[in-house]
Batch of 3 targets.
Target 1
Amino acid sequence: TGILIATPMVISAVNAWRTRATPSAAQLAEGTAIAGILAGLGYLLFVGDFSYAFVLFVPIIWAALRFEMHGATLAILAVALLIGLHARYSVAQASDGMGYRYAMLQLLILVAAATGYIVAVIIRQYRYTLSELALMNSRLEQRVIERTGEIKAAEQRFKATFENAAVGMSILDG
């Protein structure tokens, strides 16, 4: 699970550094809210019963929907750190049955990471498709405007030719 978390984190950090991405104040506030929710849920889950661990998926999906890979990566990293802290401090409390519990915690990280990354990729593809559709739509509108102008010019030429002809002309339908 380390590669599953570390690789997207490094790629996201490099891409953010390369594009000089700076979040807006609203994005910082929303990211802070996601981090706070993750911390609060982590504390509640790890202090109490771990059977409600599925609620950790909500902020991960929220981060993936709003911030794509960057948000999903940071949220998954936060969950992995929370689970790591829980695993480290729970060793002192009990040692029986911890192998199964660690395996389940690793599975939780794996499923959370896969879910977050899949949602982030789908959202990125959706936004890319929307931008491509908008670009194609604007190109089509420009072509319609150009073609309409060409048709109007041809109609005016035909009308001028018909009205200014030296000989009589008529149009017969049939």
Target 2
Amino acid sequence: PIELQGVPEGKHWLGDSFQDAVATGLLRRGDLLVLDRVRVAEASAEAGGAHKVGVLLGADLLLMGSLRASGERLRLSLRLIDGKRGEVLDQITFEGELADTLSLENDLGKQVPALFGASTLDPLPGQTPARLLRTREVYILGMEQMTKASEEASKTAVAAFEEAVRAEPGYAPA
């Protein structure tokens, strides 16, 4: 999970967006099992500590971090943690402007696998990153709504995905 620090309420979707970018980068590794961010967040709330999360999920390695915002400036710090002992094994930081979020996500998807011993990898075949920040924002908001079990949330999610597709018809996740 990514802890939000100083991120305005209307921009909380950035934490989920960065987590998705990290997961996409890690999925390029065929030897890693990447757990859904919702499941990891549930385990984090239940366990109360990185090493406890690792034990609860049976994870050898965890990637946890924080997103800090100051005005339009963002700093994302990620830590690779031993899932059994809770020891920090490595750390990486990304910084940039809010307007550069999509570029930061691309960097994440390429550089984070290196923490796990992979080289920088090209995008997966057929993977088209968003070109517009608003497309990514409404996609993430739609995904958040999909985790809620209500008809209203489902309608909100569909509307968000439709907005993303209208903005960028080639954006595959939406």
Target 3
Amino acid sequence: KNCYGFLRFSISMKKVFRQSVEFLFLENNQMLFVPKKIKRFKNLQIIDLDNNKLKEVPTVLIKLRNLEELNLSKNPIRKISNNVKRWRKLKKVVMANNQMDKFPIAFCKVKTLESVNFAKNNIKIISSEINKMKNLKGLILYENEISELPPELFQLYNHYLHQSLREENYALWQ
């Protein structure tokens, strides 16, 4: 009888734990993949998978609907799946020190992104699709092989500047 009560308590504590975890730091391991059970962390907002052996953005992470920050730096990632556009709350992506040779267009479809870091890759071209990133406030691209910036990047800057000025003026008149 006592064991049954403890077992019920243990199972319910697991559920509470899964629902309360908001950040998970798994950097500096030798992970080749992310376990599918990670999707049980329904409220996970930040995940750090820096310095592992991941070759792609793990598809199981797409199921994390509350994810706001993702760090996949120092992994041998070359390409990004179009599935990343499913994130509805993602604000920050850090994918420095990977092996991407193209600016990941799929992230241009994540409308909530405010900051992206693709430094120290092999990126040569920034797509004109970047103009879809209307909430972008920070773009880090140093130590790539970029020879030219698309005009759309400057249009994006003008949109952000206009938005900021409008918000400041609104605040002044309240």
